[in-house]
């Protein structure tokens, strides 16, 4: 059977329109938000930190995909866990595993860490000396007052050669584990978020670059000694109540955070070489 040229053209045109219509439908479906309009707002808690800017970037991208996200900022390191336990937020993002384990022990929380985020350096900072051997006898040194981060500060002081700790002790070290203190350093313990503001009052302080940047007290890159970024125990974790471990909203947001070039750019801008990703 022969088909006339005009008939063939009409057939080709019809098939083309059908294909384009199907293609357009596919594009429309792919552009459909991943979440329904009545999906509850995802509430994320974070302790005050430049980390919040990257979270805001991820929240904007989540909004484009139909997921509404509210970032809730807390000014201390205790309230984010209390808020999570009280179901005021769905997930928090501010603590590493050692801090979480201590919080669970102290507060009786039933939480789980479901994904890692960034690893942040800490350092030993001073506005009064340039080298550790310039520290005078009886100098005042500030470290964090919580059990985990205080231990991390003591380990850093040991690396600097300023003290010696009980052999084999880890981040759970306390001042009672100091077995040698040749310079008779006076070690004071302050809330971690306040250490950055102590630099005018002490000779040396454990410091968190993010808080130092917020406080503007010194250059975050100017530490006399940094700890490394290789210990993934210190990676900030996404922490939830057990029943929320597979919440698709949380999983989607974490995926956006981990894979978005814009989020990575925001982290680079905030922290430069003072952080690494742990995923």
UniProtKB/TrEMBL annotation:
Keyword ATP-binding: no
Species: Paraburkholderia sediminicola
Stretch forming the signal peptide: 1-36
Protein's membrane topology: Lipid-anchor
Keywords per UniProt: Lipoprotein, Membrane, Palmitate, Signal
Cell location: Membrane
Family as reported in the entry's similarity comment: Belongs to the nlpA lipoprotein family.
GO cellular component: membrane
Name of the featured protein: Lipoprotein
Major localization listed first in the record, in broad terms: membrane
Parts forming coiled coils: none
């Amino acid at each position: 059977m022969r088909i006339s040229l005009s008939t063939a053209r009409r057939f080709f045109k019809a098939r083309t329109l059908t294909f384009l219509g199907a293609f357009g439908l596919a594009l429309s479906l792919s552009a459909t938000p991943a979440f329904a309009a009545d999906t509850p707002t995802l509430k994320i808690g974070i302790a005050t930190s430049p980390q919040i800017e990257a979270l805001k970037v991820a929240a904007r991208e989540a909004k484009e995909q139909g997921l509404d996200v509210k970032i809730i900022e807390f000014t201390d390191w205790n309230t984010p866990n209390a808020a999570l336990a009280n179901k005021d937020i769905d997930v928090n993002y501010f603590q590493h595993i050692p801090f979480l384990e201590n919080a669970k022990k102290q507060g009786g929380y039933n939480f789980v860490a479901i994904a890692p985020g960034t690893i942040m350096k800490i350092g030993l900072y001073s506005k009064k000396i340039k080298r550790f051997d310039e520290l005078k006898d009886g100098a005042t040194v500030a470290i964090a007052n919580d059990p985990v981060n205080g231990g991390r500060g003591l380990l850093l002081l040991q690396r600097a050669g300023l003290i010696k700790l009980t052999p084999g002790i880890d981040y759970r070290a306390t001042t009672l584990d100091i077995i040698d203190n040749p310079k008779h350093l006076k070690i004071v313990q302050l809330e971690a978020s306040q250490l950055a503001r102590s630099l005018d009052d002490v000779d040396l302080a454990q410091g968190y670059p993010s808080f130092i940047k917020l406080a503007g007290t010194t250059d975050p890159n100017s530490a006399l000694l940094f700890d490394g970024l290789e210990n993934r125990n210190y990676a900030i974790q996404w922490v939830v109540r057990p029943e929320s471990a597979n919440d698709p909203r949380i999983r989607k947001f974490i995926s956006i955070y981990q894979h978005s070039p814009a989020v990575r750019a925001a982290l680079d801008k905030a922290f430069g070489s003072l952080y690494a990703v742990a995923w």
